[in-house]
Amino acid sequence: xxxxxxxxxxxxxxxxxxxxxxxxxxxxxxxxxxxxxxxxxxxxxxxxxxxxxxxxxxxxxxxxxxxxxxxxxxxxxxxxxxxxxxxxxxxxxxxxxxxxxxxxxxxxxxxxxxxxxxxxxxxxxxxxxxxxxxxxxxxxxxxxxxxxxxxxxx
Amino acid sequence: xxxxxxxxxxxxxxxxxxxxxxxxxxxxxxxxxxxxxxxxxxxxxxxxxxxxxxxxxxxxxxxxxxxxxxxxxxxxxxxxxxxxxxxxxxxxxxxxxxxxxxxxxxxxxxxxxxxxxxxxxxxxxxxxxxxxxxxxxxxxxxxxxxxxxxxxxxxxxxxxxxxxxxxxxxxxxxxxxxxxxxxxxxxxxxxxxxxxxxxxxxxxxxxxxxxxxxxxxxxxxxxxxxxxxxxxxxxxxxxxxxxxxxxxxxxxxxxxxxxxxxx
Lengths: 154, 263
What we know:
The complex is a heterodimer of chains A (154) and B (263). Chain A has 154 residues and is an alpha+beta fold. Chain A has 4 helices and 7 strands. A 7-stranded antiparallel sheet of chain A has the order 1-7-6-5-4-3-2. Chain B has 2 domains: 2-103, Orthogonal Bundle (Arc Repressor Mutant, subunit A), CATH 1.10.10.10; 112-257, START domain (Alpha-D-Glucose-1,6-Bisphosphate, Chain A, domain 4, 2-Layer Sandwich). Chain B has 10 helices and 9 strands. Chain B has helices at residues 2-10, 13-24, 30-34, 42-54, 74-83, 89-103, 122-130, 132-135, 188-192, 223-245, and strands at 58-63, 66-71, 112-119, 143-146, 153-157, 163-173, 177-184, 196-205, 208-216. In chain B, strand 6 (163-173) and strand 7 (177-184) form a beta hairpin. The longest helix of chain B has 23 residues, at 223-245. Chain A binds chain B through residues 1, 3, 9-13, 44-45, 62, 64-65, 73, 86-87, 91, 95-101, 103, 110, 112, 123, 126-127, 130-131, 133-134, 137-138, 142-147, 149-150, 153, and chain B through 11-14, 39-41, 43-44, 47, 103-104, 107, 114-119, 203-208, 210, 230, 233-234, 237-238, 240-241, 244-245, 249-254.
């Protein structure tokens, strides 16, 4: 039995360059990545972080591989809650699928067990990738609210 | 404190791979160790080796122009000595053995679960799942047909009438939940398998809906199980694009991937 990992794939009507921008531009990540701004120069060995607008740190890591607009690999440690789970690795891969469409695959690997981080990102990645796809294809973000929250704002 | 650094160093799977490499063959240079971690850059491997050296798990020695890395098992031995007394040792050995036996057992029943969030209403999403004019635009050109009553058939067919997928409705609770069995008819091996099951769940989430598709009830990792993975991704992405933009999504597989793709 291999180490636990998550693999997600989504097909998006966009060029590889546009998807690379979506992943690396804080103005865009803020719209689909739980309101956080990505910060990095995306050079190998450089730090990468996702921060809330107030500066608080959600995620930090290190860029391990960067091959625009095809592949980005970075280590990943959550800072939004107190947990001691060891760092994991996130791989973003962009593959053209015809002239209009790309497949965006995210592999989140390196988990030592199905720990708290493993469980919390299981639900988070589909929200992130759905929001990214909606933003790139429609120009607007996707607001996802739990039923209770939706009722409160209705 | 040395033990703390060792724990932190050991917490990373890539670093454990490097220690395994040195246990197999001690005294390796950076270039040789880089080969043990494909997908990681030289710089990345160097950083991990520095962390291992800092924890006392790796020592280095110059051999001409090369720097050779050696495993130092002392910190790990200290951890073992501290927490495994000579009385506990036989028990821990037995537990480690049991753990390896359990991990060698077959995994729980295989299934695919997909979640996607779509800017649409539950009613529009239900319609997209059950209207043949719409399925034709995202479900590999097939038109769905069913009365949507429990026990009645459901089929997905091309416009020439060829049925590609067939099954039976288990539950149809508009616009929340659709459950049906699933068989590919076009592949003889897959058609002969016991039908699997698709559960489509629609959960309203404000302006968006969560669509969760669970494809399960396989007799192990069958041919159907192994082939549907890529197909569902394309279908769900196409459904989302259709509902959010009004246009279908055109996906062309790269040449080397067309072999083995279904429907």
